[in-house]
Amino acid sequence: MLRAGKHRHKSYEQVAATDRGYCEWALREGKHYGTFRDFAAWLRRTHGGVVEFGKYRGRFYDELLDTQEEYCRWALALRDPSDRMRGFLDFAEGRAKRKPREPPAKKSKPAPPPPPPPPPRPEENGGITCKICFAEPVKAVFYPCGHASCEGCSALLNSVCPFCRADIVVVVKAFL
Ligand SMILES: [Zn+2]
Ligand SMILES: [Zn+2]
Environment class of residue 65 by beta-carbon count within 10 Å: exposed (0-12), middle (13-18) or buried (19+)? Predict the structure, then answer.
């Protein structure tokens, strides 16, 4: 709330929104008058300051930062900024430090789901694939011929080896 001047009894926000020239004046001269010092400090804290020159004259620093990206890039790239430009640049740099800009979200497609793992091969389970069903690991050895199959197949054999037609006397559990 301003306590003096032509905008007496108006809130800082109101004056900032309606009278840029006044803000400019307060920032420049406010330090000489106690009443306006607070207002000027508030302006600096909230908006950084008022541009006093060029085509954006009368704009608040933060407005420029938010809306005129091109201009800000140009200003920040100046090798030898004038004193009046300095104020704006200090504000821009200070703000950049306070809240670093989020990098733009990557618009990459979501990663495709990984392919399903291939079904485990019996060999990888430490066994040899049954030569009858080609699915299960060998777990049974026929005695005496020595051929072998998985447990399921060995149970179906009618005591004759399917590979060599020899009689199977006994089926031995294999530990391969
Ligand atoms: Zn089998
Ligand atoms: Zn055999």
Answer: buried
Residues 127 and 169 in one domain: yes
Question: Whole domain around residue 139: which residue ranges?
Answer: 122-173
Q: What is the pLDDT of residue 122?
A: 47
Q: What is the mean pLDDT of residues 124-129?
A: 69
Cα(168) to ligand 2 centroid in Å equals: 8
Same domain, 134 and 65: no
Whether 41 is in a domain gets the answer yes
Considering every ligand atom shown, identify the ligand nearest to the alpha carbon of residue 131 and give its number.
1
Same domain assignment for residues 17 and 85: yes
- Beta-strand ranges (E) seen in 70-150 are 140-143, 148-149
Would you state the structure tokens that stand for residue 27, as one six-digit string? 């920032």
Q: Which ligand is nearest to the CA of 169?
A: 2
- If one counts the domains in the chain, the total is 2
In sequence order, what are the residues at sequence separation of 6 or more whose Cβ sits closer than 8 angstroms to the Cβ of residue 170?
142, 143
pLDDT tens track for 133-167: 999 999 999 999 999 999 999 999 989 999 999 99
**Which CATH number does the domain housing residue 162 bear?**
3.30.40.10
Note whether 41 and 25 are within 8 A (CB): no
Task: Return the ligand number nearest the Cα of 142.
Answer: 2
